[in-house]
Amino acid sequence: MEIRHVNINDAPQIAEIYNHYIATSHATFEIDTVDTIEIEKRIDKFRVAGYPYLVCEDNGEIAGYAYGHQFRPRPAYRHSIEVSVYIKPGHERKAIGTRLYESLFSEINKGDFHTIIAGISLPNEASVKLHEKFGFKKVAHFREVGRKFDRWIDVGYWEMILSK
């Protein structure tokens, strides 16, 4: 397995992974699936803005991806970054999320960031464990702020302050 920077040719496989989560889980609040062109636009947007975007490649197949993006649009938030990680179905429990986050956080530490933020739709025990393993602390819990699959979903926020 190799962790590397994303390239535009990864978009179809990333779309496939992400669309699985759109269709089957509340890990994302998107409801409509996205096509490869939309993923290409998102990859370009994050890269142009200077945010890290990594994939885990296993024998030519994308087994997962992680990226950072702007937390909020106001300039005072520029030192905060929000992160996300998605693992291809069937590749869970192989430490892919851990490896992606190790590399992603290394990239984030090279930048001018002070705080890493993760929003997690709840319940999601695996995501909570992953983030807390890296030192994230829960700082907020919003009840019933999303609606998907005909049910209300809570969202928690975890943060990690970088010590540079």
Explain what this protein looks like in three dimensions.
It contains four helices and seven strands. With 164 residues, the chain is of the alpha+beta class. It has a seven-stranded mixed beta sheet with strand order 1-2-3-4-5-7-6, sandwiched between helices. Helix 1 (11-24) packs across helix 2 (36-48).
Q: How does the major sheet shape up?
A: 7 strands, mixed
Overall number of strands: 7
Strand order of the largest sheet: 1-2-3-4-5-7-6
What portion of residues belong to β-strands?
35-45%
The number of helical elements comes to 4
Radius of gyration: 15 Å
Shape field: globular
| pLDDT averaged over residues | 96
The helix-strand sequence is: EHHEEEHEHEE
Structural class: alpha+beta
The helix content is 25-40%
Distance between the termini: 29 Å
- Ranges where pLDDT stays below 50 over 5 or more residues in a row are none
